Structure formats: structure tokens, C-alpha cells
Fold:
Amino acid sequence: MATATHTNSTERLQSYNPATGESIGSVPIMSAAEVDAAVARARVAAETWSTRSCRAREEELTAFRKAIAASVDEIADVLHRENGKPLLEAYVEVMMALGHIQHATARAEKAMEPRRVSAGMLANFRATISYHPLGVIGVIGPWNYPLFTPMGSIAYALAAGNAVVWKPSELTPLLALEIEKIAKRTFALPDLLQVVTGAGATGAALAKSAVDKIAFTGSAATGKRVMMAAAERLTPVLLELGGKDPMIVDSDADLDKAAEAAVYGGLTNAGQACISVERVYVAEAVHDRFVDEVVKHVRELKIGGDDAHLGAMTSPAQVAIVKDHLDDAIAKGAKVLTGGPDAISGSYIQPTVLTNVDHRMKVMSDETFGPVIPIQRVASLDEAVKLANDSKYGLGSSVFAGKAARAIADKLRAGMTSINSVMAFAGIPTLPFGGIGESGFGRIHGDEGIREFTRVKSTAEQMMSIPLNMMSFRQPKEMHKRIRGMIKQLYGDGVVAKAGDFFRKLK
Ligand code: NAD
Structure:
């Protein structure tokens, strides 16, 4: 069992096993002063870490990754007990997090390599873009994927040469302390990755602290509060927020595969995934067959127990949201094919398939974050795309179709789309991950995810002098006439092929 390593706090937070309701440990509720102290320690670590070569950082990050892999049983056990997810899903989460650590480690040097770019009109200059660590990154994480999600920021921030202070969700702090223990063991700088525990107030303190960037993953409502708090110091923010991911199933889709994917995408982690399939639009011609397939797959699932497909919901608050969405949908005419509000028992929700749904219902417009698959019949692909885009969110999406698949995908207003699959973009570490609209902004994963934790530096180096030096007050008489001529030639009708040619002509 993980124990807290910080001793100043007197107040403590209990962590519960949602499957049994039992307390499985407690952690300190850290004050703003303690958060500030952690950030100050991280700043010292960052100064050393940022000056290490990419190779040296790679070595330590590899040791960190290997140590997590060596402790996979303990980590998966804490994930299973603290979050409620089945053991299999806990192991998958650890594996996906490790994939990102490995990718960020191996890729950082290339992604941060300085790039020479065209100097345009100033052809006697060498223009370079370079990337440098920001310093200290504050990472605030959610409870649904308490390892995988924050690691999408932590690994990339560390690989880019930053130190990290991580505020895990109050529902899953023990998992974070396990990782912090490993970090302290494997990194030469013990303050390189620190965990500050507590609830919203501790997160708010981190958002207000002297970090160089906040990477927040959680709900849109909290994301807005984080952004407001960070605005005090103009601290930049990366926001990975909620979603209402649509799936479109066309009439020429492989229905069995589409149904299997809808069931997995809608129900994995008991539907508590930001990129869950939250609503499905199915072409009229195949709607009924698709629904039958989905129901068939759902009936094969086991709910509860260590070998379950679906575990306990992580919090009673989330159970209440799901029940509210189901009650609302039924009151407005939805048909329940499996599960339903009456089948909710404690922290377990039976997977629920709904038809006859429409956008007046919360289950089609708000984030449900539970094991619910609402299926709407559509008359055309245009209608499917229109409904899919009719959302304040824009995180993930998926399309099951034949020849029209790519064209449909291109029309979806979302940060990410899987074609003939679900959620695949999250497991491909080269692909940037993030959303638009109320799903947030900024990107984790991929080269963008590494550069997200860097400051971009532009350098203009004069390589030789030319007669026309625009960065000087010492200009010949009537210079404005020459400039006037240049404007006409460079940007008007008498366009010169390249600005460099123009200067060569002037010499
Ligand atoms: P949440 O917004 O309730 O909490 C997230 C974190 O913010 C927690 O650590 C919490 O303690 C902290 N917090 C609360 N109030 C704060 C404040 N005022 N200032 C700073 N921090 C504060 O979200 P949650 O319920 O833990 O997570 C579920 C949400 O996260 C869902 O909406 C889900 O879609 C989203 N999510 C998004 C992604 C993504 O990558 N886009 C991934 C996972 C989860």
C-alpha cells in the first residue's frame, strides 16, 4: 500500500474502493503553501534536468519506464481497487501509459531538433526555430484513467526537459503516490516528478502557482476554473476536457465489427472514458440489424468481479449523473433494450442500450460518462454528419463505412477520428490527442505533444551584409521611392519570382 511521503499536512483524504465502499488508504490534503514549496523544489530540479542532454534524459526515462513495468502487478492492483476497473483494463491502462513513456523518450530529441526555415525577403539571414523546455509543468489529472491520462502530459513534459508537479484526482491519489515512489527511486533528481495530493483546492493552488504551464485533464466546468486561475499569472494552459463522441455507421459498414466496436467503445471502463462512444447514428437501412447485433454483444458481458468486462462506477456522483440522463431520455420517449435506470444497483450500472433517442435528450447532448449506448436512426449520411457535429464538444469520433468512410471522417468537427475502429488514435503515440470546442485545446502525444511543453525560440542570424540594410536609420535619400518600387515588384503585379532574386538584382 502506498503511503504519503509529505508530512506537513494535518488533514487527510480517504481513498475508497468503489466496489466495496471500504477505505483503502489515506493521503494528506496539501495546502497552497505546500504546493508552492513543491513547485519551488521542482524549479531547482528543472534547472539541472533541462541542461542534461537528450541522451542523458533518455537513459533516466528508460529506467523509469522499466521500473514501472517491473511494478506492473502492484500498480494494476491499486488501479483496480481504487478506480473500480476490472484487472484486465488496469493492465491495459499500464501498458498504454508505458507505450507513451517509451515514445516520448525516444522521440523528444527529434521533435525538439532546431529547424532551419526560409528567411523570405531577408535572404542574407539564417532563420532557425528551436525548442526549449518551459521549466515546471503542473499536471492536474482525472480519476477515470488515473495513470494513462496524466502520463500523456507527464512523460512528454519530462522528455522535453521539464520537471513536473502532479495533482491527481482526489478519487485516485494512491496510484499517483505509487508512481511518485518509483520516480524518486529512478531519477537522480528526487524532485523531478512530485505528487501533491488533495481535492479541488489543491488543484486550484497548483493552477495559481508559479508553474510555467498547466496541463489539465478533467471536466469542462473545472477546466474553465483552471484557466481563470492560471490567467492571474498568464500561465499557459493545455485543456483536455470531456467529450460526446459520435459514431456513424453507414449502410455498407461491416455491421458485426461496427456493433462490437460500439459496445467496446461505449462500455470500456464502464463508459467512463473521455473518448467513449457516447452516441451512435446508424443508416436507416441497417439500423435494426445493427441494434440486434449490439444487444447480442451486450448480453455476453459480465458485470462485476475481478474478471468482469465492466467494473464498478468510480463514484456515486457519476452513478447519479447516468441515472439522471436515463430518466430524462425515457421521459422523452427513449426505448430501453437492455439495462436501464431500474437495473442500477449501488455502484454497478448494467450496460444500457437505448433507441428512439434524439437531441432533446441529455443522453445525446451532455457527457453521460457511463455504460450507455444510445442509437439514433438517420435517413442520410448528411443527416448523420450534421447530428454528429451538433455538439458543444469535439474530442473523438468514429466512422464505420465502406467507400465513403474517409469523406465522412473529414467532415467531422472533432480532434480525432477512428475509421472502422474506435479509440485507436489514443493508442498510436505518434498521433496528437486533443479536442476543440468544450473538449479543450492543446495537444498531448505525438511531436505536438512534446512541443506543447516547450517554448519556441526564433533566431535570425545575419550571414552577410547587403547594401540595403533595412534595420538602420542610415538610408540613402529618396529611399521611400525604392521601397515603393519594391512593394510593386514583390507584392503587386510585377511579382519577382523570389525575394532573394530581387536583392541580387539590387547588388
Ligand atoms: P474534474 O474536473 O472533476 O476534476 C479533474 C481534476 O481537477 C481533479 O484532480 C480535481 O481535484 C481537480 N480540480 C477540481 N476543482 C479544481 C479547481 N478549481 N482548480 C484546479 N483543479 C481542480 O474531472 P473528473 O471528474 O476527475 O474527470 C472526468 C472528466 O475528465 C470527464 O469530463 C472526462 O471526459 C474528462 N477527461 C478528459 C480526458 C481528455 O484527455 N480529454 C481524459 C480523461 C478524462
